[in-house]
Design brief:
It is a single chain. With 504 residues, the protein is mainly beta. The chain has helices at 252-259, 264-270, 315-325, 332-340, 402-405, 429-432, and strands at 6-7, 18-26, 31-32, 36-37, 41-52, 57-71, 80-90, 96-97, 107-111, 117-121, 128-132, 136-149, 161-174, 179-181, 191-193, 200-202, 208-209, 217-219, 231-232, 243-246, 282-285, 288-291, 328-331, 362-364, 372-374, 421-424, 462-465, 499-502. The strands form 8 sheets. Strands 2, 7, 8, 10, 11, 13, 20, 23, 26, 27 and 28 form an 11-stranded mixed sheet that branches. Strand 21 and strand 22 form a beta hairpin. It is globular and about 65 Å long.
Length: 504
């Protein structure tokens, strides 16, 4: 007989786009349960059901809801969703990643409350995606979601007491389709079609030749524009094929929760001494990482800045987070696709598809979940007036347009300004060797990503796109590549990170 006993939740607060639920299980499964809420997404009623000691499997069941969800069938055919993954550890051991079943029949919803949902495993089985099945918009309220865990696959013995955490990240689906690289504008080292100087059309995932010969992809020489050589291989993710993109940059609380699952050695590598500066409020208090903007050593209170985009992330920090979550870095081609979509390129456009950019100059409700910038029509943080990044999705208001919300063609937020996007470049050999390989949920003993095809801790193969809170608006242009091959491996107040999931 399986005995279930509810225990007290280990943490008292939660995060903005990353949800976490703790529960304990010992086979008999012992779990804790509480209601948790993040920005506009909630996970409730988590429990373990249908333990099968013969097949060595159990279902993780929970409810999930969030507001302002959408799925469009006309025009921009895309939708939002949640990336769900989970970790476990022996009570006195280290965290490990849970592998879900790959059988679609092992995913279900007891009650969709009139909004049909689709649940599917990732190609690696390290996560699951949940999203609307049909077109529409509004609130998702899905109850009794069940994800099957074949725990023997992860070498969990039946008599071992373990702790489990479930995480969810808001994502946006970027559909398959042709798109333009470059805008025909004045950005440094913009992509263009050789011989015509017009934007280059990506029409498939086939290899792309970079050269000055007519019709090929090319770009002007600059210090960090790239070597203007080589074939961009067919396996390099070009953005034509569909992918999922994090709706927001990694937040302070998302990153602190990541830190809390690492070993002592891994934490030492991934935690920066210059955190708690330039609106980064991550602190270590009594062995736990969290946010403490009000500086009272009580973590993750309402005014502690959990929803602010996390800066001071090196390439290695961001890559480690991606590996841990079962995701990967975004390529610079995918960056332009996520911004521009299938629309015609506009010279010198920003992520929302126009050349209108209005600078944020002040912040009210600082560090709260309701933090908002002024003036009311601001749509970007740049130019060093604000001394650090702001709450993710800050510019979105009721009835906002893409331009006023600072949103991309597909509804991805803050791709222009706030923090630099760390992307994989096509400007050198290492970058061009990148493929659609995702993280496996684990890091090496030092806390680094352990995926061979990725740029390493030295950051060669990576670069920056999109500008940040410090530099002027020219750096924020979608197609500007002024530091697209910059291999800075250090941490900086303007460096953030955003992950993607590329469909197979």
């Amino acid at each position: 007989m399986v005995a279930l006993k509810f225990l007290r939740n280990e943490k008292h607060s939660f995060l903005s786009m990353l949800l976490r639920k703790y529960y304990f299980l010992a086979f008999a499964f012992v779990i804790s349960l509480c209601s948790v809420q993040a920005n506009n997404i909630q996970v409730q009623q988590a429990k373990l059901v249908e333990l099968d000691t013969i097949s060595k499997s159990v279902y993780i069941q929970f409810d999930i809801s969030w507001d302002n969800s959408w799925r469009s069938a006309l025009g921009v055919a895309n939708y939002d969703g949640a990336w769900i993954f989970a970790k476990y550890k022996p009570v006195n051991g280290n965290w490990k990643h849970i592998t879900f079943s790959t059988n679609l029949a092992d995913y279900s919803i007891l009650n969709d409350n009139g909004v049909a949902a689709t649940i599917e495993p990732s190609s690696t089985a390290k996560a699951a995606l949940i999203y609307r099945t049909n077109s529409g918009d509004g609130t998702n309220n899905w109850q009794g979601i069940k994800l099957k865990w074949n725990y023997s696959y992860d070498d969990v013995p039946i008599n071992q007491e373990i702790v489990i955490q479930v995480f969810a990240i808001e994502m946006v689906y970027i559909p398959q389709g042709a798109f333009f690289l470059g805008s025909g504008g004045t950005g440094v080292s913009e992509f263009y079609t050789a011989g015509s100087n017009s934007p280059y059309l990506v029409q498939n995932e086939n290899a792309i030749t970079v050269s000055s010969a007519n019709g090929n992809l090319y770009y002007n020489s600059s210090t960090y524009g790239g070597d203007r050589q080589g074939i961009v291989p067919a396996l390099f993710p070009k953005g034509y094929k569909a992918f999922w993109c994090m709706k927001y940059e990694i937040t302070l609380e998302q990153y602190s929760d990541f830190l809390n699952t690492l070993t002592i050695n891994q934490k030492a590598t991934r935690f920066a001494n210059n955190f708690n500066n330039k609106r980064n409020f991550i602190k270590l208090v009594n062995g736990v990482y969290g946010c403490d903007a009000n500086n009272n050593s009580i973590l993750n209170e309402a005014d502690d800045g959990q929803n602010i985009a996390c800066n001071y992330l090196s390439w290695a920090d961001g890559a480690a987070y991606a590996d841990w979550a079962g995701l990967r870095a975004m390529t610079e081609f995918e960056y332009e696709k996520a911004c521009r979509g299938t629309a015609a390129a506009v010279p010198d456009e920003f992520a929302w598809g126009t050349t209108t950019i209005i600078q944020a100059t002040d912040i009210t409700n600082q560090n709260l979940s309701t933090e908002v910038v002024s003036p009311d029509n601001a749509n970007c943080v740049f130019g060093e007036i604000l001394q650090g990044p702001v709450r993710v999705g800050n510019f979105a208001r009721e009835n906002s347009s893409k331009e006023s919300a600072g949103a991309s063609f597909y509804g991805v937020m803050d791709l222009t300004g706030n923090l630099w996007e760390r992307t994989v470049t096509i400007g050198n050999t290492k970058g061009r060797s990148f493929t659609n390989v995702h993280g496996n949920g684990s890091l090496d003993v030092n806390g680094n990503a352990d995926i061979n095809k990725w740029p390493g801790i030295g950051a060669t193969g990576s670069g920056f796109r999109g500008g940040d809170w410090k530099y002027n608006s020219s750096y924020c242009k979608v197609s500007d590549r002024i530091i697209s091959t910059n291999t800075s491996g250090g941490r900086n107040a303007g460096f953030g990170f955003r992950c993607v999931y590329g469909l197979p």
